[in-house]
Amino acid sequence: MVHRNQQDSSPSQWPEAAQTLLALMHAQGEVARLSEREQLFSTLLVSVNAVLWAFNWETRQVLYVSPAYERIFGRPADLLLSDYNEWRDSIYPDDLEYAERSLADVLVKGAVEDREYRIIDGDGQIRWLSDKCFINRQTEPGQPVIIVGIAEDITDKKQMETELQRLATTDALTQSSNRRHFFEGAREEFETARQLGTPLSFLMLDIDDFKVINDTYGHQEGDNVLQHIAESGRAALRRGDLFGRIGGEEFAAVLPGCPPDMALQVAERLQREIQRLSFSHGEQTFGITVSQGLTSLTAGDENVESLFARADAAMYQAKREGKNRIISG
């Protein structure tokens, strides 16, 4: 029997065809593994609900966009790849200047991670995007400047933030500003009026005999009255006026740019709106009246609280003088 030593069985001693076959098998294995990796990467790109993109800054050409683009933007990806203006045209008009400026900022900063802007998708719906971008500078001379980024749909998050803001600033019953939010706005308007030397008026309103309404018709009917007062306020006041519920049956308004004579006209219009209200409870019907106190900014006022105090005092004077009237203080 012929014995081969271990050295004779090494691959280097195999026939050339066997070595070629081994190389082909190794290459096929590498191709299969590469194919698996590509398939995995492709699957991940499809499943990620964010748009990955690459952009040639110099040629203004979108080089790549991931599958999520068509889901989020609702537009064909091939149109974007052939024309960069597809991206510009999808941006909400009021946000276009910011979106373009913040994209250019990446050339200076290297990365911009706080971009948020709105788009109009293919169905005409407005969506919010958080679009982070980074620069990929090539060190070799003549190489293009490539910007890469990831755009995430944050519409649901923005809607939740808006709703939380509304809940934090709005009186739940009347949908008017709550006391805290009203006075925040009132202080801002006061400071603006002081700086610009413009008029400012402050109005207080209290429902006459509201306790009698609650005791006679019930708290549900009382809530109905409060809601209609708020609706009357929104109808009678001007665009830009602030209106809020600051107590149980007390409401207030700040009238920017409104001198005393014009403020009185606004208060009278509100008084008429409320006097026209009619309520039914069973077979009974009833109306309501309000007492209003009105004041305007003077040179001696140091803060909005001084206007509030004068308007409040004038309102209680209206109560003492018989209710259902406006007193200026």
Write a brief structural summary.
This protein has helices at residues 16-47, 68-73, 77-82, 85-90, 96-104, 106-109, 155-169, 179-196, 210-217, 219-236, 260-275, 304-320; strands spanning 50-56, 61-65, 111-112, 116-120, 126-136, 146-153, 200-207, 242-245, 250-256, 279-281, 284-286, 290-296, 326-328. With 329 residues, it is an alpha+beta fold.
Which spans have pLDDT < 50 for at least 5 consecutive residues?
A: 1-9
* Count of helical regions: 12
Mean pLDDT: 86
Distance between the termini: 126 Å
In CATH, the homologous superfamily of the largest domain goes by the name Reverse transcriptase/Diguanylate cyclase domain
Q: What name is given to the CATH topology of the largest domain?
A: Alpha-Beta Plaits
Radius of gyration: 35 Å
Strand content: 15-25%
Question: Which second-level CATH architecture of the largest domain applies?
Answer: 2-Layer Sandwich
What's the CATH class label of the largest domain?
Alpha Beta
Q: Can you summarize the main beta sheet?
A: 6 strands, antiparallel
> What class would the helix/strand composition place it in?
alpha+beta
Helix content: 40-55%
Number of E strands:
13
H and E string: HEEHHHHHEEEEHHEHHEEHEEEHE
Molecular shape: elongated
The overall number of domains is 2
